[in-house]
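Action item from last week, closing it out:
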Amino acid sequence: MAMLTALLSLISCSDEFLNAPSENQLTPSDLPEGVTAFDGIAESLYFKPWFSFNDKFLIAVGDMYAGNAFTFDGAYSQFLNAQVTSQNPILTEGYVSLFSVIDQSNNLMSLVEDQKATLPEQSYKSAIAISRFMRANAYFYLVRTFGAVPIVDRAGAAAQPKRNRIEDVYKFIKLDLQYAAENLPETAPKRGYITQFVAKGILAKVHLTLNEYAECAALTQEIMGGQYTLIQQYGNLFSSPENNNSAESMFALQWKAIATEWGTQNTNQAYIVPAGTGITGGADGWGVYLPSISLQSNFEPQDGRKKNTIMTDGDFYPELLTSKGGFTYKKILSATGANFRKYIVGSAAERNDVFFMRTSQNTIILRYSDILLMHAEAILAGANSTTNASALNAFNQVRTRAGLPIKTVLTRDDLFKERRVEFALEGQYFFDLKRRGLAEATSIISQQEVGFYSDDARTVLVSNRITPSSTYFELPLPQSAIDTNPSLLEPPVPFNFN
């Protein structure tokens, strides 16, 4: 327990540069039964510091800001209309949460370094690798969302760090992921734990983001055909915690729904469930996120993912409201004529791990279908089309699982359209658009219908189309962070890697 006390002491003075405490600080109650304090601390990095990132930020930025979701909720209006300001509370919560991941990863590494002489070498390397993997993922979200941000590489770093150059942030991310890929185990010691192949998968996405196509293709090739695979039923990935950490899930946030504790759970169901349906069995279920008309139009006929992603008129779900014989969706429930289905698991009456705004459904950050589509995109390498057999095979595996006909030519538009429907409401669409470049993305976004229907029959359209600004792909730094650290307004500086 002395190890845990030392860590908690480190955490208590953390996040000084934000003038805010760490999100969801680790406590002895976090420790699963039968594990050491050290193991419990490492396990906590899979969920607690990510809480506010997952609560609203991931979907607001990754989906609503990019045109996948509509809302009447004023808290999200800036994302819906692509006019996010530095005072936006959702933006701030996500920023602080991601730096909390970084902060707690650095604290764990500091503790491990202090105990290095007493730890087995592999335990030491594994703990450092987990910490660096988590830190790299947090920075990957930060740099893609905000651009230049401060690199904080150790516990007790300067209280008011300057921003570092974008290219240095990416170099830092790569170094962390390369270490993780070299020092994590080949197979997970426990379901849901990361492996060296997970680190390679995230590293592949970093390379893809930087148009380093050959590197991405090589890494995804290493992963394909190995221990990860597509599961047969797409909907099982998001509708039941029993299916958490399936063969398709590579890296997921490992939520724990505890009736008496806040900050360990997945809150998404509360925002997603159609309002007034009683699906949660409680006072939550507000239908905050609605599938945009544009997203709905992207599903091909007979796409097996559609019913598992969005609810449309007449869809029947026997697994919801089981005491009433199931749930039939009616389009009157939504101003866009549909609601999301993903991340709905049911009610407390049906499950023992559902409470008000609490489920144990994992949030999947990386899954095997992403590896397949990244591989295809890397071989496409920015071209308009390809007939490469490896690219087509990877791409068509995803389509076949969805019940769709295979393609014999893969186009750039095909690839990104497939990604949009495959990963809807998983926080990916904004970053996919960003890889297409501002000019191409602007053309796409400006044609997307993100309005709503004003009549009960859902036929009278109130149109809304967004024209992104030149700064669309870099959201503003939170004003509260700038107020605490005015040096964030200064030009980015090189990072000292020595």
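Closing note: The first strand starts at residue 69 and ends at 70.
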